[in-house]
Design brief:
alpha+beta, 13% strand, transmembrane, membrane, transmembrane helix
Length: 246
């Protein structure tokens, strides 16, 4: 009797080729997932991150991926707010001075206006000094007190300019218009500083003599216009522009 030999028993589990096939399918799935995820990247942010890593200056020169997290941007924002605040303070000061002049009938001898330099107060000689003298009149004290009080509430630099007409002067105290104009600006600053104990380092006194007239020195009226003291409460932005030019 012939006995048939049985072949080897089949191994349990999936065929070997299935392992390779499943690995291939898995790799293809991962590949497509990767493509899909890359298609959702913000290109600008990705480039910023890549460039930041390339130069190793992530925080200093490139925008943060998270909005409003860049230190430089916050600093610029703070400077804008500060500049806006200072601008508003100058405008408020100008309005307050103009109201004071109107209420006290002083608009003919004192003019307040706004220029690129800041708030400019132009005081005619007759409200401050006797002709040829640099000692302040008592009638000027109320207005100067008002200005000093307002300056105590801010930190702007203040420049005081003295001006004369073209008529020569030769006295023991003031050999020329240069000395007279400089002494007048110094007198105004000394009063402003002492009346409110202001920081003297904020102030600058300048004497221009008759070199910067506002009218031709050909009549008593024009001569009077040129004899003046100007108080300039400086705009910080204007000071920065001058420093950059220098």
């Amino acid at each position: 009797m012939n006995v048939k030999k049985r072949g080897p028993k089949p191994k349990k589990g999936a065929p070997t080729w299935m392992v390779t096939f499943s690995d291939l399918v898995t790799l293809i799935l991962v590949f497509f997932i990767l493509l899909f995820s890359m298609s959702q990247i913000d290109v600008s942010k990705f480039q910023a991150i890549a460039e930041s890593f390339r130069t190793r200056e992530i925080l200093d020169f490139y925008p943060s991926v998270i909005e409003n997290q860049h230190p430089g941007e916050a600093k610029d924002s703070d400077e804008d707010v500060s500049s806006s605040s200072e601008e508003g303070t100058l405008d408020h000061l100008l309005t307050e001075v103009q109201v004071y002049l109107q209420e006290n009938g002083m608009e003919d001898v004192i003019v307040a206006n706004r220029t690129e330099r800041g708030v400019v107060l132009v005081l005619q000689e007759q409200i401050l000094f006797e002709t040829g003298d640099a000692d302040l009149k008592e009638q000027s004290f109320p207005f100067l007190n008002k200005v000093a009080t307002m300056l105590s509430e801010m930190h702007n630099l203040v420049k005081v300019e003295g001006h004369t007409d073209s008529r020569p002067i030769t006295t023991y105290r003031y050999p020329s218009n240069w000395e007279l104009s400089a002494a007048r600006s110094a007198s105004v600053i000394r009063y402003l500083v002492e009346s409110q104990q202001l920081d003297s380092s904020r102030f600058a006194a300048v004497g221009y003599g008759d070199t910067r007239p506002v009218a031709v020195n050909d009549s008593p009226e024009n001569l009077s216009k040129n004899r003046r003291v100007e108080i300039i409460i400086s705009d910080p932005a204007y000071n920065e522009e001058i420093q950059e030019e220098q």
